[in-house]
Amino acid sequence: MTQAEREQENEKEKDKEREKDKEKEQRGVKRPVVPPVIPEPSQESAALQSAALQSAALQSAALQSAALQSAALQSAALQSAFVLSEVYCPKQIQTNFIVVINPGSQTLRIGRATDTLPLTLPHVIARRHKQPGQTRYEDAWLKREGLNRPESGEQRQNGLKMVDQAIWSKKMSNGARRTPVSAEQARVYNRQIRPAVLDPNSRQKWTNTSHQPEYLIGDEALHVNPTDCYNLHWPICRGQLNIHSGAGGSLTAVLADLETIWSHAIQKLLEVSLKDLKYYRCILLIPDIYIRQHVKEVVNMLLVKMGFSAIIVHQESVCAAFGSGLSSACVVDVGDQKTSVCCVEDGVSHRNSRLCLSYGGSDVTRCFFWLMQRAGFPYRECRIANRLDSMLLQQLKETFCHLDQDICGLQDHEFRARFPESPVILYQLRLGDEKLQAPMALFYPAAFGIVGQKMTTLQQRSHGDPEDPHDEHYLLSTQSKQDQSSKSMERKSSSKPSGFEGESSSQGAEQTERGNQDIEHGHSQAEALTSGADPEDMPSVLLARKSAMTQFEGKALGLDKAILHSIDCCASDETKRKMYSSVLVVGGGLLFHGAQEFLQHRILNKMPPSFRRMVENVEVITRPKDMDPRLTAWKGGAVLACLDTTQELWLHQGEWQRFGARMLRERAAFVW
Ligand SMILES: Nc1ncnc2c1ncn2[C@@H]1O[C@H](COP(=O)(O)OP(=O)(O)OP(=O)(O)O)[C@@H](O)[C@H]1O
Ligand SMILES: [Mg+2]
């Protein structure tokens, strides 16, 4: 290397450093002080004592309700914190030493609780083949199962007809009807367009693998040359661990991928040495509908393998509400591959209101591609199985699609295809209704053409946990016995002195509240106790839930219908009213121009007339606190770390090693 070359290299390094510093400044990163010594938690000794006691079941119930209470307290604390416009952070909570992790199917969001914004990176890993000659494997991204069934095409056409009907029936803001534009009109133009070479050299490079790294993470993984011997894995798929029968699809392999990606992000991007993680705590955001076994495995990985000293597991929806400064809202998270809807009230996510739909932004992208192909898409070699093409298509969707009924007619657009080892090519294309039709498929998911897949998931009840002798089943059956005996006691003492009623009026309210929670518990209790019994004996809620299961599971419910269903599953009219007044949309999948008005209009039109009279204002919030909605849940996790009411929720490494899964149930701020 000559002197000049060396200087050039140095200059490049300095530039990189400067860029890194700038990025950190933008994220509001503060340098940590020396790691503190974490004192042995006082909760732990309490838990130890409680373990020694035999009345564990009752205690667990009490602990769990304490955790739920703390959720309500948190939401209250949070509200006042937001009123003060600054989150109150007690000194003893070293938020600099808390890492908040929000794993998504497409994006990992990770950062210190003190950072203003998290780091975001594609949640993907490329692993080098162990032996030469191994077949290359890549997890699908835009491609998915159920698209090539014989009925898929017809279903897609039917869905599109519904979309067109809806577009036509809604008037523009000036009262006029929209003139539909046929794909044929755009096609005639697009077919005659010839792409232009802008530059023979794109200056884009495949990731350098000459030093044969064992793995590559994020953008580097996405840009690994397909001729290199690397497999590509997305460890989260539709919000859950991406377990499958292909290469790298075992639970162990997926957990190893998560550990490698997160460790890399912590070490290389947050600049925390892995050996220092014993000084750090972690807040892990999990989906609203979660698989208990998977959460346990991930918690184990974080505490035992990575070595965090303590963890809080919290639901994305509740964190999203926190991140927006709302204590109650119907939270709609439209992600890349899944959409979840759930009603959060006073910091608690109502279990019956949780729905997860197996579609998201990537399905809109694929639908847009299909519509553009129909309209003569000029980049004819584009394939959704190709990773870089998929990235380009996502980008085109984000740039061109909208939900604004007022934009109509044909418009001309252009885009550049810039791939490694290829020239930069400029494409021009004319598009009309495709840009509105694709996002509208979220409301008419038949247009995605997915057949034979489970499209709607509800929260499954716990089937019992061998590691947790006092699991939900045990609690419910003991609770049931207690309830029965207390009911017979109540019947005996039904003639109370008249002064008693006035005295207990506030208690009465509390009991109704508790009663609402019990409805949630009551299902599995009823399920367990009434299995084989006359169905008429089952509580009506259970029946409603069961019928919802059979009704929805194979069917893709549209986004607006899912929201209405979720709200309808709330126990009281007062809660439903609150939810209609505050529909919070987070995630990136609905980040289209006009989405707020569009969704608001659909909810208003579809909500039951009785509520239309009751609810003053249906408010759809798509940009809470002017924040990027993709980061709202992460932000909520960071806010949570600051609240002193959160402190009792920490699950410490030692407790986990001694008591395992039962600690999750006892510490979770939600009904585990
Ligand atoms: N400006 C935009 N307009 C439209 N869509 C967008 C925009 N920005 C991002 N998206 C889409 O948002 C999706 C990613 O959203 P998000 O980051 O919430 O997903 P995720 O959390 O990784 O996935 P999931 O929640 O499904 O597990 C992608 O489909 C992306 O194309
Ligand atoms: Mg998400």
Task: Give a topology summary.
Elements lengths: L2 H24 L15 H11 L3 H28 L14 E6 L3 E6 L6 E4 L2 E4 L23 H18 L13 H10 L3 E4 L15 E3 L1 H4 L7 E4 L2 E2 L2 E2 L9 H19 L11 E6 L5 H14 L4 E6 H8 L5 E6 L4 E7 L2 E2 L5 E3 L3 H14 L12 H14 L10 E7 L6 E8 L2 H7 L15 E3 L13 H21 L6 H5 L1 H26 L9 H13 L6 H10 L4 H9 L1 E4 L8 H12 L2 H6 L5 E2 L10 H11 L8 E2 H7 L1 H7 L5
Parallel strand pairs: 1-10, 10-11, 12-19, 19-20
Antiparallel strand pairs: 1-2, 2-3, 4-6, 4-7, 5-17, 8-9, 11-21, 12-13, 13-14, 13-15, 15-18, 16-17
Helix pairs in contact: 3-13, 9-21, 10-11, 10-12, 13-15, 17-19
The protein binds adenosine-5'-triphosphate (ATP) and magnesium ion (MG).
The site of adenosine-5'-triphosphate has 22 residues, from helix 10 and helix 11.
Explain the overall architecture.
By secondary structure, the protein is of the alpha+beta class. The chain is 44% helix and 14% strand. It has 23 helices and 21 strands. The strands form 5 sheets. Strands 12, 13, 14, 15, 18, 19 and 20 form a 7-stranded mixed beta sheet that branches. Helix 3 (56-83) packs across helix 13 (472-492), helix 9 crosses helix 21 and helix 10 (361-374) runs antiparallel to helix 12 (434-440). Mean pLDDT is 83; it is low at 42-66, 79-91 and 489-538. Adenosine-5'-triphosphate binds at residues 104-107, 236, 239, 335-338, 360-362, 394, 397-398, 587-589, 591-592, 630. This is Actin-related protein 8. InterPro entries: Actin, ATPase_NBD. Residues 1-28 have a biased composition (Basic and acidic residues). Pfam families: Actin (PF00022).
